[in-house]
DNA sequence: ATAGGTACTTACCAAAAGGTGCATACTGGA
DNA sequence: TCCAGTATGCACCTTTTGGTAAGTACCTAT
């Protein structure tokens, strides 16, 4: 019975990036700021609801920054905060691991019916 | 339309460690082999169903090794495979990030009602 | 005037993930 | 004999997550 809710840092980190689209968002914002629609097109198959929701959570968690230009028609830019950048850094090795073993992982996922290959709808 | 289902390695990696208890399992097996009951007590508040299920998936994914001693009463030992070890390595920075920002993350999680602190039931 | 683009919001629904509790086959201790 | 512990399976149910489709307010181009 620890005062802390997390047993290892992994839990804490996954609590932050554990949404279906969050890794992708992090990935696309790592390089540059992007407008909302821009980001959505970059990801490809997200619904507005999901993208907004995940962005809101990342914003609340201090990972991304939302810059509203208060223009009409609306213009909003999203970018990583400094905190978000530290997270992006920590994610690099994992990202590299995934990239390296991607074909292997894909085989595993399709073997158990988990539709990883059905993203390209 | 990519032939690959994953847009970035992050997706692939998270497809493997994306279960509620998988990070913990990885964490506990990283150091040494453990018997089933041992592992369950180490984690603390998992149900048998969940632990078994996650172990099975990790086993199917070639992350953990299951050694059945074929004894009565049953004795089974779980350990990381070589592949699993590479994953554990890639997870270290993320784990470190989580550890470093743990209190911060906990605040965020409780703020949005996500019961991270209710693990210590 | 109508269609399409901007960045969202909301209501409703399906699917997946997770949790509870009981059952197994066998042994050893009280 | 009866209960506990070993590692698991199975049926059922709830919670969480993700998806679809529509609507909002305002603009520009046709």
From TrEMBL, chains A, B:
Name all HTH hxlR-type domain ranges. Answer: 8-106
Asked whether the keyword Transcription regulation is assigned, the reply is yes
PROSITE patterns linked to this entry: HTH_HXLR
Is Transcription one of the keywords?
Answer: yes
| Name of one Pfam family that matches | HxlR
Q: Which molecular function GO terms apply here? A: DNA binding
What's in the keyword line of the UniProt record?
DNA-binding, Transcription, Transcription regulation
What is the name listed in the Swiss-Prot or TrEMBL entry for this protein?
Transcriptional regulator
Species of provenance: Paramesorhizobium deserti
Upper classification of the source organism reads: Bacteria, Pseudomonadati, Pseudomonadota, Alphaproteobacteria, Hyphomicrobiales
